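From: lab user (bench 3)
To: helpdesk
Subject: output format question, protein + flavin-adenine dinucleotide

Hello, I'm new to running complex predictions and I'm not sure whether the block I got back is the full result or only part of it. Here's what I submitted:
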Amino acid sequence: MQPSPKAIIIGAGIAGIATAIRLAVHGFTVDVFEKNDHPGGKLYEIKKNGFCFDSGPSVFVQPENIELLFELAGEDINQHLEFKKLDITCRYFYEDATVINAFADRKKLQQELYQKLNEPIHSIENYLDEARRIYDDIGKIFLNHSLHKKNGWRLSEIIQTLSSTRYRYLFSSLHAVNKKYFKNPKLVQLFDRFATYCGSNPYEAPGMLQLICHLELNLGSYYPKGGMMSVNRALFNLAIKKGARFHFNTGVEKIIVTNKKATGIISNQKKFLADVVISNVDVFCTYQNLLNDVAVATKFLKQERSSSALVFYWGISKSFPQLELHNIFFSKNYEEEFKYLFDKKLPYNDPTIYINITSKIEPGLHATGEKENWFVMANVPADINFSQPSTIQSYKQNILIKLSRILHSEIEPLIETEEILDPQKIETGTGSYGGALYGTCSNSRTAAFLRHSNFSKNINRLYFAGGSVHPGGGIPLCLKSAAITAEMIIQDRKKWKYEE
Ligand SMILES: Cc1cc2nc3c(=O)[nH]c(=O)nc-3n(C[C@H](O)[C@H](O)[C@H](O)COP(=O)(O)OP(=O)(O)OC[C@H]3O[C@@H](n4cnc5c(N)ncnc54)[C@H](O)[C@@H]3O)c2cc1C
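Helpdesk reply: Thanks, we reran it on our side. This is the complete output you should expect:
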């Protein structure tokens, strides 16, 4: 009997764990090396003074990516993870006191937008139907296949599909497309915001990104019971159950390459050999630190990074009935905000603020009594200079002023406890260069095609899975990345014996 092939995965981010599950189910011996003392990477939690916060992702769409993993592993997901569909996907606050509920139900959403923004019923209908069409035509193909393998969905076929679709999706910005659909600038701003789901600029990113809102507003947004941390826990436990071994506090120093083939890694100055190596670490850091290939790493730096974030985790001593699970407080001048974020790369004094409050859904679990756990986030450039204490303080003050004004309540005295996440901490904690949340951004027409492939073209048996490679960042795409990479390894393995 042939021995089972050995896989080493560097990093226990969500794509690292998902790749571990897939390979373990297919008979690989899987070892995951993680520099932190826990799995999850950006998807983790903070516990402080009786409050608990999801520290990274909070918007949860396409749970079928997770259902698929459990199905593949022959396990009943209901025994491991529960999630429910949200009635209101997000509540939007504007400076002139307009408040919009983005209802999951299409008719309710249309009514809301008609009553509050006088937006004709048909415009939202047309927009969301078109978002579905783009997702089905292009997204499904593009997001589920490698663009770079000959036996995958080939680039030429993608281009053919793109050219059959309307040019405006490639040659107009998302903002320009949205302006064509909606009369009311508030609604244009609301739909422009979906570009930030991949850390991009709606004034530059192609109209194609219209497909992002399909996931939230057509398919639905979900809340996993226990918060996002439950997703991490469920997948980690599944990986263990399927036999994957995790080595925490065990950072990888180097990928061993022999005769243009990855043959293992070095960690704590010890060699660990494998038949295949998968990096779940940011692709720039993989080349720079683990392969010592400064030339390729520098090439990647030329691609624009997605945005990073400043997050304030505030334990709030009061309940705010006017807030939902997901809340957005828009800036007055969205275009200017993005100029600061992507062109000037300077602090902006009126940032759009996102607040996530899981204690709204599970009172008592993440904050006691009437208290609330606020995850308060502003987008900032992927630049560790935004971690300077003076910059953080100036963002904090501007956020407090804005929230106190709109919520008619002084917020600062209500903060019982505080933690802060900034680009430097994201970089140090997860290895993402500059603290970028989603690897490179999608600000240009070609960005999606320039993302790193799921395999190395120069080093055999070296693969990549995670938010910095194809098809992109965010939990759904990271899980798709794991599926593409694992499937590629399983197929490539059939050829291994002929190579040797
Ligand atoms: C504040 C914030 C908000 C976000 N909001 C959302 C959201 O609402 N919805 C959404 O879908 N996504 C969101 N994201 C993005 C999402 O979290 C990421 O796209 C996703 O979690 C990235 O997963 P990954 O598998 O690429 O790995 P990562 O999470 O980047 O993990 C990589 C792992 O590799 C490890 N590592 C690095 N170097 C080494 C080494 N040398 N040796 C060993 N291990 C190493 C790191 O410690 C880490 O555990 C958010 C992210 C952040 C930070």
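A quick orientation on your result: The CA atoms of residues 397 and 482 lie 40 Å apart. Let us know if anything else is unclear.
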